[in-house]
Structures are given as C-alpha cells and as structure tokens.
Hints:
Blueprint: H1 14-31, H2 36-60
Helix pairs in contact: 1-2
Amino acid sequence: MSYPEKPRSNAWFLLPIFFGVIGGIIAFFILRHDDIRKAKNCLYLGLVFMIIGIIFNIFISPTLPGIDPEFNINI
C-alpha cells in the first residue's frame, strides 16, 4: 500500500531530542504514513541521543561521590 507523501513540519524533530528513543518511536509511528523519510530520521535521532546518553553516563559515573559508610541514617 503506497501512501502519498505530505510535507510535515520540522518541529517533529523536537520529540526525539527531548524524549530520546521513546520520542523517536512516537514520531515514527505518527509520521510513517505521511513522510517516511522524516519518520526514519526521527527514529535514528532518538537512537543517537540514547547512545550519547549512555556514553555520557559511563564517563560521568566514576566521578560521582559515593555515600560514606559512616553516614548513619536512621529510618
């Protein structure tokens, strides 16, 4: 089944930028019938931001201070 391609706004790229891979999947399923190229690009953008976030967390996590064993919290 072939769908006619309708131009969609570039504002759809904000969804994967702010919500990562979840936003990319949402944008993909909304745009897939109207503009398949933009839908795939939104999905790829969400995946790229997810990978960048994982790499960022790997490099940042060793620098975070740990909780001292002498912290003594009474619950």
